[in-house]
Specification:
214 residues, mainly alpha, 59% helix
Amino acid sequence: MNTDKLASLEQNCREFVQALPIADAGHDLAHVQRVVTAAKLLAEKEQADLQVVVAAAWLHDCVAVAKNSPLRSQASKLAADKAIDYLTSIDFPSEKLSAVHHAIVAHSYSANVEAETLEAKIVQDADRLDSLGAIGVARCFTVGGAMHRSVYKVDDPFCENREPDDYSYTIDHFYNKLFKLPEVMHTYAGKQEAESRVLFMKEFMKKLGQEIGS
């Protein structure tokens, strides 16, 4: 794609997203920018359609739905519909709208929609990478605070003798979802980076255990 056209698309999408409300501080403009950066790197390595990937990455969270909302599983579909309306208004190529829509719908973990295209797999990988590593730890606790979750369950912080309950305890989210993400990454580069980031998170958990005496 022409570099100037791509830059124009990104500028338009950035301005659109910047004016929207956010669900929480873990899903702000900075999160979107990180996902876009990761998605572009993966798209270049995988030789994907950069126009589709960039549009979907910028707009993947354009509808704000809180993590504990009953509408959470519908959030990516709502975002995809809104994204298509916006892209149509800026004369985005009509033949690529369905690909963008699918990539946005499929990016969500809670929606449980299989990513069927390379572009959807890349956007999904990029979004999930931002749940891991140092930024993933920071975002997890940010969202946990917004949901008024306790940091951990006092008598079993690390889910050794119980099922994780990440509606009540932030640490449980590591076990319920985050540590499992490398297994479901689609791209080779995404999987490698996810595994590296999870190693950091497990070291963090060890240090946390020492500090809380568990």
